[in-house]
């Protein structure tokens, strides 16, 4: 028995007597079914990975947006809140226009 030999589906290596069991080659239909099953499994796995990545990116985007508008407090002392700066600038412009 050679360890690196490949056999058709269902065939086994020769017995000690030199006899081998019947050989079963895959038909076109069986091969097509195996290919279709592999494609279906790949599409399912790829969809699950894409869904998980999409949820993660959406959550990170929302978290960053809420930090910028000031709904979530600063993290590790990094303040990215822009709302107060925008409010101050708008007040100054309005006061200039009204004066």
Beta-strand level of the residues, as a percent range?
Answer: under 5%
Instruction: Give the helix/strand class.
Output: mainly alpha
Mean pLDDT: 81
- The number of domains is 1
What is the overall number of helices? 2
Overview of the structural elements:
By secondary structure, this protein is mostly helical. The protein has one domain. The chain has two helices and no strands. It has helices at residues 28-68, 83-98. The longest helix has 41 residues, at 28-68. The protein starts with 27 loop residues before the first helix and ends with a helix. The relative contact order is 0.06.
Name the descriptors:
99 residues; mainly alpha
Summarize the structure.
With 99 residues, this protein is mostly helical. 58% of the residues lie in helices and 0% in strands.
How is the secondary structure organized here?
Elements: H1 28-68, H2 83-98
